[in-house]
Amino acid sequence: MKLQHALGGLEGLDDMPITFEKRVFVQEWEKRIFGIHAALMGLSAALREAVPGYDLDAVPTTFASTWTWADLRKGAEAMNPFEYFRLRYYEKWLGGITAYLVEQGYISRSEMDSRTAEYRADPDMSLPEAGEDAIDAQVIRYLRKGDTPRRGPADAPAFAVGDRVLVRNPPAGEHTRLPGYLRGHTGVVQRVFEGRYGYFCSTGADGLGDPVPVYIVRFEPDELWGERTEPHAGPLYAELYESYLSPIQ
């Protein structure tokens, strides 16, 4: 999570407007964007290694790429921070998905611009017809069964409950799962999850790649916020990959 995605601990945000919108979908088109994302997830080549087991070769789809939550997040994190704050939630999804499909060659930029112009000229124009029933069945099966990031037993976790650990400060690269406000701070391991866990992709520069143990680490508020800690503030708990932690010497 880069800066605009993890604002905890930043100063100067007191006057930042806050929205209390509770609806999941505010406009009808947002449901369609969510559906496109779910379909790409359910047809993704990443499911060939999924724990439930999916026979993607039996699904009559031309989509043969890997699409995961990481790809969606990388698209959002690549945005200009000011654009990120300006756009609505599903507008960010729309931009990321569109850029990915163009990059992968499923549609050209000129085709996208042409269709966009057609729908702007005639907003009531019919949408494309639904696809094959087998495609729908695969997507629904994925939504019901999903996948798990767990990949086998843990190989002697480096830390145990009660160990004090230091959060590393690796380069963020194009995507990271390490919040900025935890970097360089110390905490205490509260739980060691059973097994090893991977992420949807290798994040490269920050060291997250092969499956590793995952921990719940407790951070005291004074450690994170210093003299700006609010009275009676409680501890913060974070789930962190082992590759983000170093032992306290």
Provide a brief overview of the structure.
By secondary structure, the protein is an alpha+beta fold. The chain is 31% helix and 10% strand.
Textual characterization of the structure:
The chain folds into 2 domains: 143 residues, Cyclin A, domain 1; 84 residues, SH3 type barrels, CATH 2.30.30. It has 7 helices and 5 strands, in the order H-H-H-H-H-H-E-E-E-H-E-E. Helix 1 packs across helix 4 and helix 1 packs across helix 6. It starts with 27 loop residues before the first helix and ends with a strand. It is of the alpha+beta class.
Give the helices and strands, then pairings:
Layout: H1 28-43, H2 69-77, H3 81-86, H4 89-103, H5 109-121, H6 133-145, E1 164-167, E2 186-192, E3 214-219, H7 221-225, E4 236-241, E5 245-247
Antiparallel strand pairs: 1-2, 1-5, 2-3, 3-4
